[in-house]
Amino acid sequence: MSKKAIAIAVVGDIHDRWDATDGEILKALGIDLVLFVGDFGNESIPVVSAIADLKLPKAAITGNHDCWYTASPWGQRQCPYDRNVEDRVQQQLDLLGETHVGYNKLDFPEFNLTVVGSRPFSWGGPDWKNAAFYRDRFGVEDFQQSTERIVAAVKQAKYDTVLFLGHCGPTGLGDKAEDPCGKDWNPLGGDFGDPDFAEAIAQTRRLGKTIPLVAFGHMHHNLRHTQTQLRKSLAVSPEGTVYLNAARVPRIVTTQSQEQRNFSLVTLEKGQVTQASLIWANLNGEIVSQENLYQLSPQVVQPA
User: Fold this and answer.
1) Hey, is 70 helix, strand or coil?
2) Which of 221, 209, 147 minimizes the C-alpha distance to 177?
3) CA-CA distance, 303 to 84, in Å (whole number)?
4) DSSP one-letter code for 88
5) Per-residue CA distances from 123 to 106, 220, 297 (Å)
6) Domain range enclosing 202
7) Is 156 helix (H, G, I), strand (E, B) or coil?
8) Residue 301: what pLDDT?
9) Residue limits of the Calcineurin-like phosphoesterase domain (predicted)?
10) Beta strands 161-165 and 113-117: pairing type?
11) What CATH number should be reported for the domain holding residue 242?
12) Closest Cα to residue 89, out of 135, 120, 119?
C-alpha cells in the first residue's frame, strides 16, 4: 500500500555533473522515487555506474549523448576509444539493468504505479535518425515500430497508473522555440519532440491507463537564440497530464558562497500530480531556492 503522497525527483540532463553527494541530497529531501532523463555524459561509464549504485527506487532512460560515439558515422569518427574492444552503449545498459526503461517498463508495487520508457537514445525531431543503430540494437526500423515497442511495454504494466519517462519529450507541446520541445536553433521554431512517443501516449490513453506525468529533458532551458527568457518547463494536457522538461543545464553551479545542485520535484497524490517545482539544494540537502512550476487546486484532487 503506497503512502498518501509520493515525492518524485526528476534529474535533468546530467552531462557528467553527478556524484555520490547527489544521492545524499535526495535522501535529505525525502525523495521516494528518482527518474533520470538521460544524457549522463558522452558514453560516461563512471557516471552511469554511480547512478546504478544509488540506493533509492529509480528508473532511467538513456539520451543521445549516451550513444555519442556509437550511433552515427560522425560520432564513430570522433570516438576516443577502440569500439572493436569496447561497447560502451551496452556497458551502460548492463549497469542500469532493469532500471533502464527505454522500450521497457518497471513496476513499483510500493507506489502502485509503473514507469514506462519511450525510445532510448533519442536525438529528437521529426526525422528517423541513426537507422542502423536502432535496427541493429533494437530491431526497430521506423517511428511506427518504435511506437509499437513502447505500447508493448505499456501492455505489460502491472498498474493502471503509468508515468512516462523519455529523453526527448513527445510532439504536440508547441512549435515555438521556447516551448518544451521547441527548436531553438536556426531556422528558429518547429516542434522537435518525438512523434513515436506522442502516438504511444495517445494509444496508452485509449487502453484506459492514467498518465499523471510525462518527464523528459534533452532541450535545455537556456535558449540558444536569446538570454531574455528560458524555455518553458511545463505543460498540462486537457486530460490533466503534466509534461515536465527537467533539463536545467548545468545542473551543478557554484556561487560565491556554496555549490548548488538542481532537481525537479513532483508530488504525486491519488494518481495525480499535485505540485511540481524546480529547486536548487546545497550540499546539506537544504533548498536554497525554488521555482514553483505547477500547483493543482485542492478541490480538483480526485477521491481515492
Assistant:
1) coil
2) 221
3) 56
4) H
5) 23, 13, 35
6) 5-300
7) coil
8) 52
9) 8-221
10) parallel
11) 3.60.21.10
12) 120
The burial class, CB within 10 Å (0-12 / 13-18 / 19+), for 106 is buried
Question: What's the total number of domains in the chain?
Answer: 1
Q: What is the pLDDT of residues 274-299, one digit of tens each?
A: 999 999 999 999 999 999 999 997 65
134 φ, ψ (degrees, to nearest 5): -70, -35
| Amino acid 177: pLDDT | 97
C-alpha cell at 224: 540558444
Q: At what angle do helices 195-206 and 143-155 cross, to 10 degrees?
A: 40
Contact at 8 Å (CB) between 162 and 209? yes
Amino acid identity for residue 150 in this structure: I
Q: Tell me the C-alpha to C-alpha distance, in Å, between residue 91 and each of 39, 86, 118, 133, 138.
A: 15, 8, 20, 16, 15
Ramachandran angles phi, psi of 301, nearest 5°: -65, 125
Distance CA 253, CA 220 (A): 15
Counting Cα atoms < 13 Å in the Cβ hemisphere of 34 gives 25
pLDDT (tens digit per residue) in 107-125: 999 999 999 999 999 999 9
| Residue corresponding to grid cell 536502432 | 134
What pTM, to 2 d.p., does this model score?
0.96
Cα separation, 241 vs 268, whole angstroms:
12
For the stretch 128-170, pLDDT in tens is 999 999 999 999 999 999 999 999 999 999 999 999 999 999 9
Task: Judge whether 232 and 219 are in contact, CB under 8 Å.
Answer: no
Task: Return d(Cα 32, Cα 15) in angstroms, integer.
Answer: 24
